[in-house]
Design brief:
By secondary structure, the protein is mainly β. It has two helices and seven strands; from the N terminus they run βββββαββα. The chain has a five-stranded parallel β-sheet with strand order 1-2-3-4-5, with no helix packed on it.
Length: 166
């Protein structure tokens, strides 16, 4: 329980046990270059943590508990498989955050600059729609779905449509 630094980088470890949350006096946790895919929520118990280095793993998402580690000064998440980040990341206001080389899709947390974001593989991201909810984009223009339905009824009920008049 009195441990303040833990270095387990480069060991091909696959699981972070939830008991990590018992190390409440931990200030530095280095788990880079392993094979982790997730972070246990118990990490939120590490309220004295100043450095969390989880770079070069296979992490796909952050537990919300990470966003409440108010004493964090360094959060390293580069070279993982993250696809999104919550705006709650901005709660870590005095923290240097490294997230480059992930698969994070926009929109990005508002507190991050382009430099903070760095390179992201966005090839699997959906293109953002120009239209609000309930509207459909056609050739760069937004149309209300119920209006399109009425037009389709006109087309269907025309002489050349599916339901022509007698």
């Amino acid at each position: 329980v009195n441990l303040t630094e833990l270095y387990l980088g480069g060991n091909y470890l696959t699981v972070i046990p939830p008991e990590i949350g018992n190390l409440v006096n931990l200030q530095s946790l280095y788990l880079y270059e392993n094979l982790f895919t997730s972070i246990p929520s118990e990490i939120g118990n590490l309220i004295n943590l100043k450095t969390l280095d989880m770079g070069y793993n296979q992490i796909t998402e952050l537990p919300v508990e990470v966003y409440s580690l108010n004493n964090l000064e360094v959060l390293r998440l580069e070279h993982n498989q993250l696809t999104s980040l919550s705006n709650d990341l901005c709660n870590l206001s005095d923290c240097n955050i490294y997230i480059n080389n992930n698969q994070i899709c926009p929109p990005y947390p508002e507190c991050l600059t382009e430099e903070d974001i760095g390179y992201q593989d966005t090839s699997e991201c959906e293109e953002p729609s120009l239209c609000d909810e309930g509207y459909i984009e056609i050739d760069g223009e937004c149309y209300y779905q119920s209006d399109l339905d009425v037009l389709q009824d006109f087309i269907d009920n025309s002489q050349g449509g599916n339901n022509p008049p007698p």
